[in-house]
User: Fold this.
Amino acid sequence: MAEKTLSFIDHLEELRKRILYSIACVGIFSIVGFFFSKRILNFIITSSHIESAYFFSPMEAFVSQIKVAIFLGIFVSFPFVLYQTWAFIGPGLTNKEQKVSIAYIGSGVVLFFIGNLFGYFILIPFGLRFLLSFGTEYLQPLINIGKYLSFIFWCLLGSGFLFQLPLLLFFLIRLGIIDVETVTKHRAEAIIAILILCAVITPTGDFFTLLLISVPLLLLFELSILAAKFSQRQKASEEI
Assistant:
């Protein structure tokens, strides 16, 4: 019992250490990012094709720059945070599982950045154009900078993390935790779950924006199943 308690405490201490490392990394890059936040904030406003944004309280402009800095800290620190996650889980895996899992860290980083690019160049412009189209001659937008930044960053980070789902599915199939046949059999339920998750993460909640982010995600879902099937066939042929 003492050994089990000690082992559990050791795991908690290791988890605490990895979380502190991740927070420290985000904090350091956020501090560095604060010195560039005003320039980036101006770029965000001008590149979004809106004339200007407004702050409605004395502190809001300052808080907006802090939001930009924290986003930069999270964005730049993501590869390190992903590695810390693996460093905590990795020792509990077998040698085979470790080799498989570490191979996907780079893929996870690439998919995160691709998701952010998708959010910036596709989801945000089309989403804004759709939402602002409901304005009229007498109903004009007055963009609040705080809410606008929340919309931008939610789209970017949401897209980045959603693009991890197909990789996670392929990873679980590759490790043998779930099999392709089960996923294929319950494809309809999986698609509904993905749509619900997209609806929760999508900040606007409208059907058009949901469609924009769910279609590429569903395509990645199908590609991950095909890749897993190919991997299983290749593995079976090697064993023969």
Summary: The CA atoms of residues 88 and 208 lie 39 Å apart.
